[in-house]
Amino acid sequence: MQGSESAGDKPARREETLGESIRYFCVLLLAVFAVRSLVVEPFNIPSGSMIPTLQIGDFVLVSKFSYGYSRFSFPFSPNVFSGRILGSEPHRGDVAVFRFTRDTSVDYIKRIIGLPGDHIQVTGGKLILNGIEVPRTSLGHYEVLDENNRLLSGDRYRESLPGSAGRPTVEHDILKLTDEGFANDTPEYVVPEGSFFAMGDDRDDSADSRFQGDGPEDLGFVPMQNLVGRAPIVLFSMDMRHPAWQFWYWPTEIRWNRFLHSVT
Q1: What confidence tens digit (pLDDT) does each residue in 25-77 have?
Q2: Could you give the CA distance from residue 38 to residue 63 in angstroms, rounded to a whole number?
Q3: Dihedral sign computed on CA atoms, order 20, 23, 24, 25
Q4: Residue 3: its pLDDT value, please?
Q5: What is the C-alpha separation between 130 and 123, in angstroms, rounded?
Q6: Strands 189-190 and 95-99
Q7: For the CA atoms of 90, 68, 70, 171, what is the dihedral angle to 10 degrees?
Q8: Looking at the annotation, which residues are catalytic?
Q9: Could you give the C-alpha distances from 146 to 15, 51, 57, 113, 251, in angstroms and in order?
Q10: 236-261 pLDDT, tens per residue?
Q11: 2 pLDDT exceeds 70?
């Protein structure tokens, strides 16, 4: 019978309209924005201030919900509110990403050494926390190149930083190049309310909270509001000895042993 559909005929495929395509694209952008703002954000390690814990070329995942949310949790840091929403205090020993105190467009990553009320001092290159020397054990000689291709040659130690809020001691490695200079013989600092004290694990090659002056790289105490998130894991890592466009070197520059490496 003419005009009737045969059993094998299929309904015509409806073409997607321009409006629907734009809507799907907007939904995708919104999902990416939500994940990056509220869940996790990738962060590249550009300098050697956290050696040996983090290596130049590491890509870490930053947990955005660990400390709650401030305006710095969101792309472009919109100044729509102050303080933190669902905020919680970080723990001593956390490796955290936060905004630089002198330029909040810049991200820093350091270890949280002191919390409000803590007394911190470095004497003869040794960390003193609340009047007690933080124990450390020598792990021998250590050498590595920094971001400027300079050789960092010193001693690696396993430091035992007392935990906070009932948490156990945080065992982590540090690098010591010297016991001389201001950074190794500091005054005693008392961390004020609403702030924390941060230091790099490369103790002699880190611009951190020991520097409290007016210099362009002086960090000082860091307001809790500047926290972006905690860095619990290295997603992957690349040596990056060659320019990025030389893609044929990529397979040899991947540090396979740092894939999903835990940050402690």
Answers
A1: 566 555 555 555 556 688 999 899 999 999 999 999 999 888 988 888 877 77
A2: 8
A3: positive
A4: 47
A5: 13
A6: unpaired
A7: 30
A8: 49, 110
A9: 55, 9, 11, 23, 21
A10: 998 877 777 888 888 888 999 999 99
A11: no
Q: Which two tokens stand for residue 67?
A: 């400390």
Go through the chain and tell me how many residues it has. Answer: 264
Question: Which residue in the block uniquely carries the two structure tokens 């430091």?
Answer: 159
Q: How far is CA 107 from the centre of its chain?
A: 8
For 185-212, the pLDDT digits (tens) are 999 999 999 999 999 999 999 999 999 9
Q: Pull the structure tokens for residue 189.
A: 């600092």
**Mean pLDDT, the chain, as a whole number?**
87
Residue with tokens 């998130």: 229
Residue 133 has pLDDT above 90, yes or no: yes
